[in-house]
Amino acid sequence: MSGGRTKPASNAPRRTQGFGFEPVASPYHFTLRVGLRARITILERFAAPTGADGAAEPAGDEDGREVEKARLDAYRWERVADIAAQEFNGRLIAEGVRSGRWLKTETPLAPHFGKELALLAWAIEDADPTLIPIMVANWRGLAPEERWWFYTTINATLSHVDHGKDRGWRKAIKIAFAGNPVQLPPSALLVGPQQIDARDATKGKRAAPRRATPSTDAGQGRLRLFDLDAPADAPKETDR
Predict the structure, then answer these.
(1) Stated pTM of the model
(2) DSSP 43-57
(3) Fewest C-beta in 10 Å: which of 18, 134, 171, 175?
(4) What are phi and psi of 98, to 5 degrees?
């Protein structure tokens, strides 16, 4: 400090919880809740959680309510949990914000991360497990802004978490995410060690699996079912 000057407040570290949630900035956030049998529920919340630092008043006129947005069974969640954490933490670290981790009971998320996670959950909620790596690759291939667009479009017609899974945009996103826009095998898109096929070992192929990183070319992850420039016959985006 020099001449009585103090460090600008903008340089102070951001106090976050979970994955980028800043209760001091706004109580609005999403929460990932672990329930019975490790089933997962993704909630949209309009008030800060009990015991959170900073303001605990409801956001706007929502009176502190919470809304269920998506559910996943334990098996499907385990298939994507590490991948989602890696995706979010990469962006948090790039912004100079501390990384997060999934907690045993409830994990708060910044609204934009919550929306992206809900979109992924809608895609894989009833999916054939063999398609999950492809769906994750398509999700990761989208820019954050594209994920938010899909979330807003689907959310505009979402009346209940269990209703409409096989209709409209919620069904369409499942079909789109099941397509494979990349040249890598699905197993190469998973985070963590990969299993080696016994047939490959007998053919003298490499013994140690190498973690593959999806390419980042312009065509990576673009869902061909949709034109994000909003074709005339596509549902219009409605903010909610």
Answers:
(1) 0.69
(2) EEESSPPTT-SS--S
(3) 175
(4) -65, 150
Count Cβ atoms within 10 A of the Cβ of residue 70 and give its class: 0-12 exposed, 13-18 middle, 19 or more buried: buried
Instruction: Specify if 97 maps to a domain.
Output: yes
Domain that holds residue 30: 18-193
Sign of CA dihedral 197, 137, 18, 65: negative
Give the Cα-Cα-Cα angle 171, 34, 38 (nearest 5 degrees): 85
Q: pLDDT band at 181, cuts 50/70/90?
A: low
Residue for token pair 């045993």: 104
CA distance 12 to 9: 5
In a domain, 1, yes or no: no
Alpha helix stretches (DSSP H) within 168-236: 168-177, 198-202
In the chain, the number of structural domains is 1
Question: What does the pLDDT read at residue 152?
Answer: 95
Contact residues for 35 (Cβ-Cβ < 8 A; gap 6+): 41
* Residue 204 domain flag: no
In the 8-state DSSP scheme, what is residue 208?
S
Least confident range from 14-18, 19-23, 67-71: namely 14-18
Q: What is the pLDDT at residue 160?
A: 79
> Quick one: tokens of 232?
């005339």
Q: Which amino acid is at 210?
A: R
Mean pLDDT of the chain: 75
22, 28, 32, 36 alpha-carbon torsion, rounded to 10°:
130
